[in-house]
């Protein structure tokens, strides 16, 4: 693809990307406002409820590395179709008050999202290599919008449909809609044997590359914060005295605020020599939002959720942007995406689990605030390294190198 981008031809692809991205957060954010209701209905402990927030994030990491392998054998388009089908079926299974289908569906939801999310950066890098960072911002904005809808509509849907099971299960309709659109509008060619000049590509070992680990560390630490917020923010706000519905809407408002920086952060990052100033600014907003929401008077809650949303939306957008900017081609982007999201999400799963354990043994928010700020500090440390103008590439002998951009 040349430097001149034909946006008219790419418009259908972008529309499909947005529709797919809309499905990758409601399955996670719709659960959080319902946790207290689920706990009371099923008699689960705080640690058992914590598993519901940790299990899908852990599965994001476990199943993300499967995406490159499935792509090699099925093709990227067929793999994404399979993941969307799995997501719709998992959401249907999860809509159950019996523990086994509830937890099994939650596990499969994480598997489907892990595979789907890993494919997106490589697909964008393949279709639009010159503007991949900006398009990454567009579909990240769609991810945030889906998360906001899931958080804000969870309680109203449950009340309207008469049960939390139907409220959670209704999101399967959106997944099946995306599957139908993707199957009908996107060609699904079978994979062919590569004939390019990179026969050693499958032997590339990113695990030995410092830059790959820096991107992975940033992805993992900021994702831990994101999934703690998705899984526990409404519960924490309810502990501060807010009602179930208001806590859900505050989460929705925070995620809605992510839309602004999810789209704007990649543009802002282009103004500097590298991405470090932008990421540090965003993480500072995240830290300020956490402190306001958990420690400041409740009258400050709306500025707090807006700051938190602005910080987290841009931080996640920059995490996906770093994957495409630090990769010289779509194949490396796919491998880096698999590593960053696979290992990163596995590390991120410790965040919601840790919060669940702390809530089991303490009611104070001071320790929780310190833990969240520690994740912010870890993300900042990784960003100072991953945000430099470096790129993974292959030398003429097919060996992995880190080059200056």
Strand order of the largest sheet: 1-2
Order of helices and strands: HHHHHHHHHHHHHHHHHEE
- Average pLDDT confidence is 85
Overall 3D shape: globular
How many strand segments?
2
Low-confidence regions: 195-201
Can you walk me through this structure?
The chain is an all-alpha fold. It is 75% helix and 2% strand. A two-stranded antiparallel ribbon has the order 1-2. α7 (99-127) packs antiparallel against α15, α11 (210-239) packs across α15 (330-348) and α13 runs antiparallel to α14. It is globular, with a radius of gyration of 20 Å. The two termini are 19 Å apart. Mean pLDDT is 85; it is low at 195-201. The chain crosses the membrane at residues 45-67, 102-124, 136-158, 164-184, 211-235, 247-268, 280-298, 304-325, 337-359, 365-386.
Features:
MFS_trans_sf, membrane, mainly alpha, MFS_Cyanate_Porter, transmembrane, MFS transporter, 405 residues
In short:
With 405 residues, the protein is an all-alpha fold.
Secondary structure: elements and pairs:
Elements: H1 7-21, H2 26-29, H3 35-42, H4 46-63, H5 66-74, H6 76-94, H7 99-127, H8 132-161, H9 164-169, H10 172-185, H11 210-239, H12 244-269, H13 276-295, H14 301-325, H15 330-348, H16 350-361, H17 366-386, E1 390-394, E2 400-404
Antiparallel strand pairs: 1-2
Helix pairs in contact: 1-7, 1-8, 1-10, 4-7, 4-11, 4-15, 4-16, 5-6, 5-7, 6-7, 6-10, 7-14, 7-15, 8-12, 8-14, 11-12, 11-14, 11-15, 11-16, 11-17, 12-14, 13-14, 13-17
